[in-house]
Structure prediction request, 235 residues.
Amino acid sequence: MSLLLQADSLSQAAIQVAEDVAAKKELTLMQIIFSGGLVGQIVMVIIFLMLFFAIYLYLERLMAIKAASKMDQNFMTQIRMHLQQGKIDNAKMLCASTNSPVSRLIEKGISRIGKPLNDINIAIENAGKLEVYKLEKNVSMLATISGAGPMTGFLGTVVGMVMAFHEMAQSSSNKIEMSVLAEGIYTAMMTTVFGLVVGIIAYVGYNHLVSITDKVVHMMEVNAVDFLDLLNEPV
Prediction:
């Protein structure tokens, strides 16, 4: 009976110790992010601002590019029909009522009908450059953040290490407490961890946006070529 009581008490003690350790770790995790002194706190705030800005840029550009990629499959068929029937005004109205990069390119080309084909081609190319600029607006900021995030985190780590060793140098005691040193290093390394997380998120988001933008640009090029071919068809 006494053995059972002792085993039960040991089990309860072990559970209590585990709970205390878990509570301590949870408290440390909550505090460790902003426990690196003033410089560390400033670096962490900058990193979190980068993270917020990167997520916002990615979602905003993703929705804009997705909207630009939507196009009626019968759009070029209707344009072809209107032009073959000589209804240029109807073709312009169709382009104006369709909100897409392709429709704006075709509208620019239709407005130049009657001029040399080379002038029409140049007008479409210029309109295409403007549409590509709109699609890629602020996307380069993600590339910047993907590089600046880890660098900022590394800066925080270096500053934290310098400050930790400075405190050790200024200590009046000849003995170095390893727990204090380990805590300082751990705090400093947190900036690198979060900086890398921000860099990875921004890098993946940037490459995804570039990929879907290339698809929209390809769609614009294909429809522009179809339009020019339509103008070259014999009447």
